[in-house]
What does this fold into?
Amino acid sequence: GDSVTQMEGPVTLSEEAFLTINCTYTATGYPSLFWYVQYPGEGLQLLLKATKADDKGSNKGFEATYRKETTSFHLEKGSVQVSDSAVYFCALTAPNTGNQFYFGTGTSLTVIP
Amino acid sequence: DAGVIQSPRHEVTEMGQEVTLRCKPISGHNSLFWYRQTMMRGLELLIYFNNNVPIDDSGMPEDRFSAKMPNASFSTLKIQPSEPRDSAVYFCASLRGDRGRRTEAYTFGSGTRLTVV
It folds into this structure.
């Protein structure tokens, strides 16, 4: 079935470090891919998305490229800030899934000054 | 747009009591999802509705849990009787579904933090 696998955390980085959070997927058909962010005490918020192969989603300095050949959608940011400390979820939805999204287990990121 | 609205934000109840969580989806969204989040299990899908009809409730833990969507602008998740292991954050999300390729994203509410003592 459709699923998402993301790297386990927690991840701890110093401010201004480079961030990569890996995400790979399994899906029938052509899924749309998403990254959500959850700040402490809040709900999940959409961070970025890509709906077809080779699309690059970007927002707030974060980027992810939909790679069909490697079935991946890795999240990257060139220089993290303390305010980026949160839990990041990779997700997909595919045609004929009845509008259902499949989420990864989440990766906790802590950025230290 | 006010977003997905959940109430209450926090609920503390005694074991055995009935608990009702409420959700108002974004106007025009035709799919609604209930999730539960705990440290141990992460984010779990409990049930979802398309056009007010329950589509998949296989994630509902047991018969103590029930969910309804009487109209397009309101849904409830009820736990009766509640138990301490039900303590979690419960999220509601809505989506404007479309046929074929999915381009729209879920919008989540802020969640209800339930504590059963």
Summary: The radius of gyration of chain A is 14 Å.
